[in-house]
Amino acid sequence: MIFNLLRATYITLLLVFIGSFSFAQSNYFKMSYGFGGGINKSYTDVYKGSYGYTAYGVIDYHITPFVTLGLEGQYGRIQGGDIETDPHNRQFINQYAAITANVKLMLGEVANYDKSEFLYNLRGLYVGLGIGVVNNKITDIVRYKPSWAAYNPGYGPFPGKDKSLNMAVPLNFGFNYYINDGYGYMRYVININAQSNYTFGEGLDGYNDSSARFENYSADVYNVYTIGFRYMFGTIKSYRKTL
């Protein structure tokens, strides 16, 4: 009698433990914040862009573990051109800051990864779209051609503003690698991201030249390549699939 009672108690506790563990595995934190940095490359009205740097901070609300709405702030340097090699002897440095709102959709939201180890490992792959503003602060720029220029020396000033605000649309493609804490929850994230930012206006490089003279037809763009770290926190919510 006692043996049967002990066996029943053991089985009950075991089932409760297994059920609790499974339940914990299907819960996630609704918020995360993070930071990171990397390099950027400009594509503007000057003949050739060059590499700069970007640091960022981000906070996200997780609608599900794999669908997020968030705010991202960036600060860094965008630069391009070269006074000696550029066809018009132009160059610029933009000490910029930006803030954007973004939505991201990860593979884990649409893929049935429960039965595929390959898809499970790629569940953090995502695409994203956003909108925001870039605060341009040109700290160095060639407004007049130098006297030694091969073509039209001394020409200027090149029109444009040293300070401006431009609307921007960021497109994101990246990957989140999740690390569980001691309780089995997704808690830490290593993030790799490639972002292309399309700006509306002529403030990114500080030049606003006539399109007839300089073939200025396309939007100014800067791409950002970063690696970062994120921490998930806040209230806990259940999810339909095992995490």
Number of helices: 4
Helix content class: 10-25%
- The overall pLDDT, averaged over residues, is 89
The biggest sheet, with number of strands, parallel, antiparallel or mixed sense and barrel status, is: 8 strands, antiparallel, barrel
Beta-strand proportion: over 45%
Radius of gyration (Å): 25 Å
- The number of E-state strands comes to 8
Low-confidence stretches: 12-24
CATH architectural category? Beta Barrel
Can you tell me the overall shape? elongated
Secondary-structure content class: alpha+beta
CATH topology: Porin
> Looking across the biggest beta sheet, what order are the strands in?
1-2-3-4-5-6-7-8
The string of secondary-structure elements, in order, is HEEEEHHEEEHE
The number of domains? 1
CATH class: Mainly Beta
